[in-house]
Amino acid sequence: MRSEEVNGILVAAHDLKAPLALMRQLALSLDLADDQPTRQHIQSQLVSVSERAMRQVNDLAKIARLEDGLFEMEPLSVRNLCDEVAHELRPLFRYENRQLKLTYNNRSRLAIANHDLLHSVIYNFCTNAIHYSDRDTSSILTITDASDKIRIGVRDFGPALPAKIWRELRQGTFNAPASIAMRPGSSGLGLYIASEFARHMRARLGAIRHRDGTSFFIDLPISNQTSLFA
């Protein structure tokens, strides 16, 4: 087995173990809670952590089925999909005292993609950004035109993305889970899942390094089909 495959397995194991350890800690603290508001708060955390862990496991299972013809491409309204993700995550952002701002500047409304895979990619970008926003600050979900593509991106304000991972994303060679030492709250497994989904959709996954954070984005082929609901 190649060293990068071994490292990938170790990263995946670590990323899947982390929420289990947190759930155990929360469960133990639940027994020590003295009042109902505290218990409800801990229970809410347990539900949130377990849902995110199950979503990641489900996404891993999807990677193994990508070539089975289950995830067909179709014209999708990117604005509707991003609204859907934002609505789903709004309680989590509110719980963490964060905000998610939406900025849509795209003239092309439909992209060629798979709904479930693209939903997972954008969801991953947004949950990752929660780790890198100070309280009462905002992460930014944007949709723009990028030449002959539609770009969906999420801006965070964390530590710089390591140059090695940035180059691999740019070159399309990020093909195994990798730890991101400078961004310990970030999921190398989640980035790998997003990369595999983007590759299946013939989309480009990339990142822009800022002095005060990173923007992760996916460039999608434009659909020429028109829709009254886009």
Explain what this protein looks like in three dimensions.
With 230 residues, this protein is of the alpha+beta class. Helices cover 50% and strands 20% of the residues. It has 6 helices and 7 strands; from the N terminus they run ααβαββαββααββ. It has helices at residues 3-32, 36-63, 78-95, 115-130, 163-171, 188-200; strands at residues 74-77, 99-104, 110-113, 138-146, 149-156, 204-210, 213-221. Strands 2-4-5-7-6 form a 5-stranded mixed sheet. Strands 1-3 form a two-stranded antiparallel ribbon.
Beta-strand fraction estimate: 15-25%
Shape: globular
Number of helices: 6
Q: SS-based structural class?
A: alpha+beta
- How are the strands of the biggest sheet laid out side by side? 2-4-5-7-6
Stretches where pLDDT falls below 50 for ≥5 residues? none
Distance between the termini: 46 Å
SSE sequence, one letter per element: HHEHEEHEEHHEE
Number of DSSP strands? Answer: 7
The value of Rg in angstroms is: 18 Å
Residues in helix, % = 40-55%
Please give the largest β-sheet. Answer: 5 strands, mixed
Q: Please, what is the oligomeric state? A: single chain
Mean residue pLDDT: 82
